[in-house]
Amino acid sequence: MKSLKFTLALATSLLVVGLAYVAQQINSGANMVSAAQGFLGSLTAEQKKQGVFAFDSDERFNWHFIPLQDKDTRKYTRKGVPLEEMTDAQKQAALALLRAGTSEKGNLAATTIMSLEAILFQQEGPKSAMVRNPAWYFFTVFGEPSKTGKWGWRVEGHHLSINFTMEGTQVVSSTPCFFGANPAQVKGDFKGLKKGERVLPQSEDYARDLFKSLDAEQQKIAKQPKHFGEPEARKKSPTAGKPVGLPASKMTRDQKATLLDLIKAYTDRMPPDVAALEYKQATEGGIDNVYFAFTGSAEGPGKGFTYRVQGATFLIEFLNVQADSGGNPANHIHSSWRRIKGDFGL
Description:
By secondary structure, this protein is an alpha+beta fold. The chain has nine helices and twelve strands.
């Protein structure tokens, strides 16, 4: 019961932080330097051993979006300093770093994703094979945050992996960027979350709307015979391959507008200036060269589907085919934004 109370209390506090998000200044990179320095300054020497690595460490590429734990001991195996081992002041410093790397919308989504672990804990119980804990989100810094020199940082846990590579105050890369949700839509009444609340609605709705707007011939080109697989974690770059599906060159003006809205649903998770740069890079080669591929059903909640959006420089991957922990079909999202060449600033 004590564990459940702690879980629910932290979930509620994370939501409050998301809702109290303060608009960022224009230079997000400078905000990240300041926030990272503040976070590191709050850590003990022992915590720094756990959460600080050299910039060129292979750990920088060891990203994942599942709970990483020892099967027998049920202890976490993910690197970084988890929220559950931080003081209140350290938690505030960590969440300030998260805010520096997200937009208001992205921060709310990220903290809500964390809070969903409380729902999974209630639904699955303490004997679940996987530990469900909203305080199992880990903060890691690579190199020395400063206004000059290379450094990076990461925050991740179940269904969340945000990775930044920096050159001083300049954002070199904001990918890989993974957001997921289980449940994608809250089906019951849970403390701190409203029944019917959706965590990543735009990543679902714009894709469904786009596919439904296509005529029969367009759908035939966009529709793929089998679902796309999971985003490839622990890889320095995605295996994008040749684009499949319908190119925007074969879309109407309104369909292209919906496609652009879908792309923005991903870039808008980032701070405004970073999002603008990502969007510009994604579209500067011309929207006509962006491909949209879809599998499954576009008929609405409970119907599984996946999609890919691929341009010359970026790849969006999305899946909603799994049931949530309550058994509700197709209510479990995995979504990612990656640079085909340029993840981790490589």
